[in-house]
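Risk register update: the risk of archive-format incompatibility is retired. Evidence:
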Amino acid sequence: MKSKIDLPPVEEVVLPKLFNLRPGYYLLGLIVLVLLLLIFLIGFLPGIRKGGRYVTFGAPLSETGILLDGKYLGSATHQYFVPSGDHTVAYVKADHTYAETSIHVDHPVFLTNLIRRTLEIPSPPITLSDEETASIVSFLLEEIQEISKSLDYPPQFPYQPVYADLYNDLEALGIRDTRPIVDLALSLISNDTMRKEAERFFPVEDPPAASEPENDRILPPVGRPTILVAGDLIIEGYAYEGSSFTMGDGAGPQSDYASVSTPDFVLARRPVSQYEWALFIEENPKWSKSAVDDPSYLSGLSLSTRFSTNRPIYNVSYHAARAFVQWLSQKSGKEVFLPTEAMWSQAAYSQEHTEYDTSLALSERSVPLLGLLGGVWEMT
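Archived output:
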């Protein structure tokens, strides 16, 4: 049987009081203070430091620019953060201020970094003179004319809805007789994408059927292979005899048949390569990227004569292309020039099989000419 052991007495531990409060109370108070501090830092401080709202500006006219207190914000189709306070808003289109208004943005502070506080400004009334209205209409027609320069809009290229803008703006401007404007706008339709959009807003008449030639179409003869020697450059090409043939297919909205003639000419087998352009720049430094005052010239390219590549050159101007063919003329002793549309069509018609190039890397194929369709834009 175990004997009982008597333990010495132990004094009770008592924590000291703080501000006459027991430890449990001031620990609880400390936790509450921390929580209140977190609520302030998260819920109130961001709003106190950055007060304002995300504002959407209603605009009666399409592609309206917003000026806030004299500074350009951007298009009215977007939402912008506007600091709290009183502001002046100007609505601009085609360099004309057609409306001005004053707005007041309050200063919300609670949870502004978590809850997006917004404000919608209604569309203001339009105040324009007849001359300013005519200028805006002219701007709309110029946009349609610019879009009509393309005969096709593949899915990879965005299309700007110009007829929707025209319909909206004519109604907002309150023009009574819109028929002459609409007729002119519809006459600029040059592709099916434009036609489909225009039909949603205006009555569009079907284009007249293209007149077929009375006789069978006359196609040009096939070219024969040849080369052009320009110094160390050897450029493959195809020689074509001068010919008269029917150009066009009547398939597009503004397409028709036309009888054309060409002289004897030679067309290079492939587009001008980046390596060939690098050689051109090496002998003509004035056409280097740094020497030409045009940010789009040779944009995205880094050319070098150290590496031979057949990838086609792009982002060059018409004047640069003219200078290039003049350089080839001097080096080869033969007349080198940019082909005309008729020459290009003759080469295309005489090629039995054509493939649309969707890449700049032109693969060797059995067809005579490479990059004839698709790829980069050609200078003609």
